[in-house]
Amino acid sequence: MMRYPNLEDIELIDIPKISDPDGRGNLSVIEKELLPFPIKRVYYLYDVPSDSSRGGHAHLELQQFLVALSGSFDVVLDNGVDKRIITLNRPNKGLIIPNGIWRELESFSAGAVCLSLVSDVYKEEDYIREYDAFLSFKRGQSNP
Ligand code: T46
After folding, report:
1. Which is catalytic among the residues 5, 45, 57, 113?
2. Residue 6: predicted pLDDT
3. Domains of the chain
């Protein structure tokens, strides 16, 4: 039987960092081999007030890779039964979120920038934006 992605499949992965030998700072690079999907779109969130949240939905198919390019924020991941909170606060660490996981991004620090590399172009029909609809969707899957 098919196994759907779950919270334990969500990985924080290292982005290669090249430190400059002459003290000019760091350079990180994301090449296509780093991610389990081809990148079709890039967007970023910034100037998010600390008392605001982003996300609050799941995707049917979209996979994504989130990086805190600057500052920090929390990613609350939810499979309809359990939740997991991961703080992103380093530009050389990224979080791969598979499809079918509800996510909320909150507690943005001042100056935080969230880079998102995703597996498809923008399609509103790929979003589940109502939590009850998400729970119904998860009930239709074999694992939570
Ligand atoms: C996600 C989190 C982390 C577009 O027109 N094109 C786009 O590529 C995107 C991402 C959004 N939009 C429009 C749709 C809405 O009218 O921008 C508006 C705000 O989008 P949304 O409410 O979905 O924004 P967030 O920050 O809640 O969610 C976004 C992504 O949509 C989502 O995939 O995981 O960032």
Report:
1. 57
2. 84
3. 7-138 (2.60.120.10)
